[in-house]
Specification:
CATH architecture of the largest domain: 3-Layer(aba) Sandwich
Shape: globular
CATH class of the largest domain: Alpha Beta
Number of strands: 13
Structural class: alpha/beta
CATH superfamily of the largest domain: NAD(P)-binding Rossmann-like Domain
Distance between the termini: 38 Å
Radius of gyration: 19 Å
Bound molecules: UDP-4-deoxy-4-formamido-beta-L-arabinopyranose
CATH topology of the largest domain: Rossmann fold
Number of domains: 2
Number of helices: 11
Largest sheet: 7 strands, parallel
Length: 338
């Protein structure tokens, strides 16, 4: 069965392609390589011993999207990762984010809904909750006004899909709200490849550990948390990738009573920035050079998932600990810096 993975050369996309191929699916990747490299295909092949079909297409080009679906009439499901995802950049360049994250979703759905019985998985984010009032965060926690155009594109994306499913029962869709993905495939054949200075905590930690960065700046330790630093739910990217396969299989089997569902995808555990640093020091045996600096604007204090819905309905649960995820991130960092 042929599955389209947009953004399939990216961090979460590539790990999902591996899990799909390991589960016997035929994968077609669309990626514009603006934030990824074709070399990732070699890593995917090294792990799953299968080479996915790859087409370099910019999904903002509506005609190219239409032409793709004319050539691939046997696609049964789509997992849509392709999007711009840097929160800070989205504040500087809102129109680029609305064009790249919204127009592309619309062009994809226009093609997909022209066919019967299509499954669609959307890469969403816990960002839609903003600072939730209660922990752990459930799927029915209110979606709050987005703190960034990036977060807004995820909220708008979910609404576009929900509105489309309402009028098209042939479209079966799930939005997966990721918490904080981290780590790399244990084979160290694929992993996170941040371009430039990493915005996210874990790649900055491992780049500091390997000597690429002098020092990690911890953005504030005066938050109302046990150790004063922000708390997040860090999930191993392979656990996250597996959640996509399970969600897809739910749709392909027609097991979803509504044709649109939302699931939180996290571990259900919260870890503070200092706890993540301790995890790195434990698994690497190295002391991390860091200093406490001012808070980063837009940061929420605490976010970790209530994973009951995914556990019970998808039958999926994250299996890796923070240390296991951190070890995979560290192994990957050392491999790519060799
Ligand atoms: C985590 C914690 C920082 C860097 C973002 C997006 C979210 C998703 C994941 C795409 C925070 C602290 C960070 C650093 C630090 N992206 N930190 N020093 O902000 O929770 O989520 O990435 O889907 O949508 O919002 O992740 O890794 O940037 O920050 O102290 O150099 O680490 O303040 O408390 P975040 P993050």
């Amino acid at each position: 069965m042929k599955i389209l993975v947009t953004g399939g050369l990216g961090f979460i996309g590539s790990h999902t392609v591996v899990e799909l191929q390991n589960s016997g699916y035929e994968v077609v990747i669309i990626d514009d390589c603006s934030n990824s490299s074709e070399k990732v295909l070699d890593g995917i092949f090294a792990i799953s011993k299968k080479m996915p079909v790859f087409e370099k297409i910019n999904l903002r080009e509506k005609e190219k999207v239409h032409d793709f679906f004319k050539r691939h009439t046997d696609i049964k499901g789509t997992i849509h990762f392709a999007a711009s995802k840097a929160v800070g950049e989205s504040v500087e360049k809102p129109l680029l984010y609305y064009e790249n994250n919204i127009n592309t979703l619309i062009y994809l759905l226009q093609e997909i809904t022209a066919n019967k019985k299509q499954s669609f998985i959307f890469s969403s984010s816990c960002t839609v909750y903003g600072q939730a009032d209660q922990m752990p965060i459930t799927e029915d926690a209110p979606v709050k006004k987005a703190e960034s155009p990036y977060g807004n594109t995820k909220q708008i994306g979910e609404e576009i899909i929900s509105d489309t499913c309402r009028v098209d029962p042939e479209l079966q869709a799930i939005s997966l709200r990721y918490f904080n993905p981290m780590g790399a495939h244990p084979s160290a054949e694929i992993g996170e490849l941040p371009i430039g200075v990493p915005q996210n905590l874990v790649p900055f930690i491992t780049q500091t550990g390997v000597g690429l960065r002098d020092q990690l700046s911890v953005f504030g330790d005066d938050y109302p948390t046990p150790d004063g630093t922000c708390i997040r739910d860090y999930i191993h990217v392979v656990d996250l990738a597996k959640a996509h396969v399970v969600a897809l299989e739910r749709l392909l089997a027609g097991k979803n009573p509504q044709n649109y569902e939302v699931f939180n995808v996290g571990t259900g555990e919260g870890s503070s920035v200092l706890e993540v640093i301790s995890s790195f020091e434990r698994i690497s045996g190295k002391k991390l050079n860091y200093s406490i600096v001012e808070r980063r604007s837009g940061d929420i204090i605490t976010a970790y998932a209530d994973t009951k819905k995914a556990n019970e309905i998808l039958g999926w649960k994250a299996g890796s600990t923070l240390d296991q995820a951190m070890k995979s991130a560290w192994d990957w960092e050392r491999k790519i810096r060799k």
